[in-house]
Amino acid sequence: MDTAEVRLIRSHFANVVSSSAHRDHFARTFYTHFFARLPQCRSLFPASMDGQRVRFVAALEYIVRGLDDTDRLLAFLAQLGRDHRKYGVQRGHYAAAANALLDAIREVDSDEPWSRAADTAWRELIALITNTMSDAADADNFPALWEATVVSHERVLRDLAVIRLECDSPIPYAPGQYVSVQIPQRPQMWRYLSPAIPTNPFGQIEFHVRRVSGGWVSPAMVNQTSVGDRWRISSPLGGLHVDVDSGRDVLMIAGGTGLAPLRAQVMDMAHRGINPRVHLFVSGVYPCDLYDIETLWHLSLSNPWLTIVPVSEEDENPWWHPYPVPEPPHGLHQRLRGPIGAVVSQFGSWADRQVQICGSPSMVKTTAYALQRAGTPVESISYDPLR
């Protein structure tokens, strides 16, 4: 696509993401048109579409922002196409989705009037999206879904569980990627989770799950999961990784259970003899939110290239966690206090590092802004759009 077409697309889409109300209205418009064209597809989706609408707009926002990086965009679309096989999506469904998306974007109020040029640009982008997704789905030789059995469920905090499973066959994910998961307590509802360990030939996988207030799936994962439950897991997504050949050291910033994909990468790197230096900042609101700090400390003891820095916004644990804050293990960096973005950026720009941020959407956004204000180039910062 040329520069003028990209500008037109971004101009129209800017109004879609200008507020949460606009985002929701756009997503509702799309799904209304899509289900009108293919009513039978409504049964492929959960009764509550709130989460689905949020993920739809987030994915499209990532696509529009990434129009300047064709290689990354095509890889992302191919992953989406493989992932959508879990819904039973077929090639014929993509034509209806393409027309529904074009109708929805036409109905967006924008400062840029709808024109023949805009129509051509959007048709070209939508064709790229649907063709790439459907081609990747058709070409994938892996299963659409993997089945796994829960073998351990450990409540490490009142609202956080570490859940371990054994898959019927190994899932070929790369450390740093994430997958979508469906549990028996919430059929047809999918939740994105990042494996906290690298893949292995035994099919073992570990997830760290925090209960989201008002959520549909995470409370059931934390509160209702039992050993023996059968979960369904779909194709890997995401591209967080350490480029060991770049010659650049690494800054990793984790918020809460956003630690999982960073932990998996660090564990994978520990199998290699030579690695770049890694500073891993692990953050939470309270000291108890640093739930896996002892594991990370043990990793750092045997891997001198790894530095673990604990950070919490508060000095004391909340009332519902009636345990004193333990002394840091010998050799672990002293726990720092403050919002993670402010803490990390006070050390400088980190301009020479590969930077990965993983946590809640608000944590990722504020931390990325803090780093950019400190001088970190935006192209050095990586995070996943959907997790």
List keywords for this structure.
Rossmann fold, nitric oxide dioxygenase NAD(P)H activity, oxygen carrier activity, heme binding, transport, oxygen transport, single chain, Elongation Factor Tu (Ef-tu), domain 3, alpha/beta
| Terminal-residue CA separation | 28 Å
Query: Structural class given helices, strands, pairing?
Result: alpha/beta
Could you tell me the number of beta strands?
12
- According to CATH, the homologous superfamily of the largest domain is Globins
CATH topology name of the largest domain? Globin-like
Mean pLDDT reading: 92
Radius of gyration: 22 Å
**Percent in helix:** 25-40%
Give a structural overview.
- With 387 residues, this protein is an alpha/beta fold.
- It has 3 domains: 3-139, Globin-like (Orthogonal Bundle); 145-237, Beta Barrel (Elongation Factor Tu (Ef-tu), domain 3); 250-382, Nucleotide-binding domain of ferredoxin-NADP reductase (FNR) module (Rossmann fold, 3-Layer(aba) Sandwich), CATH 3.40.50.80.
- The chain is built from 11 helices and 12 strands.
- Helix 8 (259-269) links the parallel strand 7 (250-255) and strand 8 (278-284).
- Helix 1 crosses helix 6, helix 2 crosses helix 3 (50-65) and helix 2 (20-37) crosses helix 5 (91-106).
- 36% of the residues are buried.
- Belongs to the globin family.
- This is nitric oxide dioxygenase.
- Its EC number is 1.14.12.17.
Short description:
The protein is of the alpha/beta class and 387 residues long. The protein is built from eleven helices and twelve strands. The chain has three domains: 3-139, Globin-like, CATH 1.10.490; 145-237, Beta Barrel (Elongation Factor Tu (Ef-tu), domain 3); 250-382, 3-Layer(aba) Sandwich (Rossmann fold), CATH 3.40.50.80.
